[in-house]
Design goal:
The chain is an alpha/beta fold. It has helices at about 10-25, 45, 60, 75-85, 100-110, 115, 145-150, 165-175, 230-240, 260-270, 285-295, 320-325, 330-340; strands at about 5-10, 30, 65-70, 90-95, 125-130, 155-160, 180-185, 195, 210, 220-225, 245-250, 255, 275, 305-310.
């Protein structure tokens, strides 16, 4: 472990990024439901820090800058967007990505378009933090993977860190960015730890992370995995390596902008692609990536692109069915084997 690094959780890394940016820049504020304890509760003593405690401790450190909001996403997301155009740098917590329907107009018709509607004069440096993904037994209205909806909207930047190191660096970059950013935190990663420097650092948007390379830079297949699925891909790659199949794993980190150059270069080298995306398959990030590769690297493909996704159904509430819904390492390994063994 390098000097200054230590192991902290994904939750702690996000909290630390917020604290460091609030110390650096007084225009940074945090707002959302229960961030400061909840209306009518002794917030000074028991500030929740959001539904899963991500902002816990900030209320005391930054008086007047950690704000509870009413249970009205349209109101407080709209307020955050307005504050951003007025010179603040708000970080608003949309408790679950599933709640975007309540405030989507404020995001895609307002925040995403202000820079363009006003000739570049109205920058909107708002960050909307939100939880996504299945696995917490939170049922169909609290477990969806809707990154593709935001990715479809020009003017939004969409970030999906897969580990604590990236979560801190990408959130710092998001807060400093002058465009609206959807910062999507997979709820099943909050307790997963990684080595994270204590000092502040920013990770540029649009630069994929090569999580795993083949030996001597050579691999049999490219796996592009998003969010929590990066860990599933790593587990599958370990199993495949014992059978002599080498996988290169790419984590886009940001899906808008997407690092197409790194993805295409990898596919050109391996000739095979497996995309792992927890979302349902129709009009998803998986189909988007597959489509671009088929268009721009078709001559390099030695096998059809394989997609590993959730089924096209709402996320089940019962645990046994939810576990079947979520792509796992075995499904990833099977998709890789299908690609490698293709004899078309």
């Amino acid at each position: 472990m390098a000097q200054g690094d230590r192991s902290i959780t994904y939750r702690e890394a996000i909290n630390e990024a917020l604290a460091q940016e609030m110390e650096r820049d007084p225009s940074v504020i945090v707002m959302g439901e229960d961030n400061a304890g909840g209306e009518g509760s002794p917030g000074e003593m028991d500030a929740w820090g959001g539904v899963l405690g991500v902002t816990k401790g900030l209320y005391h450190r930054f008086p007047g800058r950690v704000l509870d909001t009413p249970i009205s996403e349209s109101a407080f997301i709209g307020a955050a967007v307005g504050a951003a155009t007025g010179g603040m740098r708000p970080v608003a917590e949309l408790m679950f990505i599933d709640f975007m329907g309540v405030c989507f107009d404020q995001i895609f018709n307002q925040a995403a378009k202000f820079r363009y509607m006003f000739g570049g004069k109205a920058v909107t440096p708002v960050v909307i933090r939100t939880m996504w993904g299945a696995g917490l037994r939170a049922a169909a209205q609290h477990s969806q993977s809707l990154l593709s909806v935001f990715t479809h909207i020009p003017g939004l930047k969409v970030v999906a860190p897969s580990n604590a190191y990236d979560a801190k660096g990408l959130l710092i970059q998001a807060i400093r960015d002058d465009d609206p950013v959807i910062f999507a935190e997979h709820k099943m990663l909050y307790d997963v730890a990684a080595e994270v420097p204590e000092e502040s650092y920013a990770i540029p948007f649009g630069e994929a992370n090569i999580v795993r390379e083949g030996p001597h830079g050579k691999a049999d297949v490219t796996i592009v995995a998003i969010g929590r699925m990066v860990a599933m891909a790593q587990e599958a790659a370990d199993e495949l390596a014992t059978a002599g199949v080498q996988a290169e794993i790419l984590d886009p980190r940001t899906v808008s902008p997407m690092d197409w150059d790194t993805i295409l270069e990898s596919v050109e080298n391996t000739g095979r692609l497996v995309v792992v995306d927890e979302a349902t398959p129709r009009c998803s990030l998986a189909t988007d990536i597959a489509g671009v590769v088929a268009q721009d690297a078709f001559s390099s493909l030695r096998a059809p692109v394989q997609l590993v996704t959730g089924p096209h159904t709402p996320v089940p509430f019962t645990g046994a069915l939810e576990d079947l819904f979520i792509p796992d390492a075995q499904r990833v390994a099977n998709a890789v084997k299908t690609a490698v063994e293709y004899r078309g």
